[in-house]
Amino acid sequence: MELASELKERIDLILVSLIEHSRTGKPALIVSHYDADGIASAAIMAKVFSQLSTPFHIRIVTQLDEALINELANAFKNYELFVFLDMGSGEKELISKRCKDKKVIIIDHHELTKESPSNGCIVELNPREFGINGDNEISSSGLVYLIARHLDVKNVKLAPLAIVGALGDLQDRGEKSRLISLNLAIAREGMAHNLIKEEISLRIFGLRSRPLVECLAKTFDPYIPGLSGNKMACYKFLKNIGIEPEANGSLRMFSSLKKEEVRTLVTNLVKYMLEAGLSSKDAESIVGYVYYILNEDPSTPLYDAREYSALLNACGRMGKYGLGIVLCLGVRGSALNEAIEVWEEYRNRLAKYLRLIHSRDIVEEYRELYVIRGDIVGMEERISGAIASITSGIFSEPKVIVVLAKSEREGFLKVSLRLPEMLKGKVDLGSIVHAISTEVGGSGGGHKVAAGASIPINKREEFIERLRDTLAGELL
User: Fold this and answer.
1) What is the mean pLDDT of residues 42-48?
2) What residues contact residue 122 under an 8 Å CB cut-off, 6+ apart?
3) For position 114, what pLDDT does the model report?
């Protein structure tokens, strides 16, 4: 895989730092985000440290702020190397102040903040510094993979984890939901080594491993109003379009459908989604590129890279961080069974909140945005981001999606924001949220199309008002 010389030099610099630290025999701390990309990143870095015989500790977190950085610096004061994954580029100032006596490596793909100072203790790898879009060209797990691959060519076997992380971060922004740029290059490297297979298919969860009725009910990306989360409605839908959901007393698998039945299913799904108010782009996204991991059992959710990422996301959102890590490290059996159970519970919670949103029971509508009041119905912080992503495809009006949820931090609210397709390119949510959340005594940031923040509860109205004012000015 050919890399730009400046990017390769930065990878070399980080690898040198990792190797130099390994010679000290002292432990390192990995701090990573709790979503699929963060968990996959941490697992790949764990492989790197293991190969370098470096003792390490993994800490998975929901958000990086001053309180957490202080906690980490105190709890791990005897650790000389801190590695921040899938976070840190927007918090270099805080990190440099509190961790100035540490060696710090930041591997992140989020927006770089203007006020971040250069500091001799920090070595950073962010694709944006090299003109590479961190929103869709490569995620943090892909960056850590490049480091692992540079350490040892045998680490090409970790390419599937990089793809799982990218898909978990919704970086499949190419035509028909295909990966692009460096993500595609990593996928092709995996294909060349018979690790990954790419093909066009229905993008329905569990298509190879579950009955079709369950597949439809468990599909939330894309979200299908009235079908996602409702098994009985899916059964009736199949009956109504002339496809028998059962055969010989058992629910049918997708593989049992005849070619004409497959065409009927695709045509009617797209028609149903259009009639439910989804855009033609969202409706047609039901068909697209899928990525299979060839060394995984086809009867499990780990075979389809998107399903694998869904399991990791569920583990992260439900606080089962260690479970997600051990899956990435190759543990199966009871760990996989437990992960599937966690995923089922996670989907049930998603379905509950999405029903409330679809009925508008917890939705406040303004000219510039929709506010989802998850905080008044006990929505968990870890679930808010997924709800925001799914909800961005539900409403037909081009407004920013704002999801409020209860925070794990006392006295604070978690805010997750998404920019709908029709507004992409018009505003930079990450920069806007970083500025406003800081102004109200919180913290936040993210991408142009997806951002998050932690704000004081008593600043909720002020945050929304400032956000509305800013968006009104930007979108005029």
Assistant:
1) 98
2) 92, 95, 96, 104, 105, 106
3) 61
| Predicted local distance difference test score (pLDDT) of residue 119 | 56
Distance linking the first and last C-alpha atoms of the chain: 44
CA–CA distances in Å: residue 76 to residues 55, 82, 104, 412: 13, 9, 13, 25
Q: Which two tokens stand for residue 149?
A: 């691959």
pTM of this prediction exceeds 0.85: yes
Q: Report the distance separating Cα 243 and Cα 255, nearest Å.
A: 13
CB neighbour list of residue 457: distance below 8 Å, 6 or more residues apart? 411, 412, 413
Complete domains list, the chain, with CATH: 5-172 (3.90.1640.30), 199-333 (no CATH), 360-475 (3.10.310.40)
Tens of pLDDT, residues 412-432: 999 999 998 788 888 899 899
Structure tokens at 238: 């199949």
Find, among 363, 450, 341, 440, the residue nearest to 109 by Cα: 450
In angstroms, rounded to a whole number, what is the distance separating the alpha carbons of residues 356 and 362?
Answer: 6
d(CA 348, CA 113): 37
The residues, any chain, with a CB within 8 Å of residue 77's CB and separated by 6 or more, are none
Give the tens place of pLDDT for each residue, 176-193. 999 999 999 999 999 999
66, pLDDT greater than 90: no
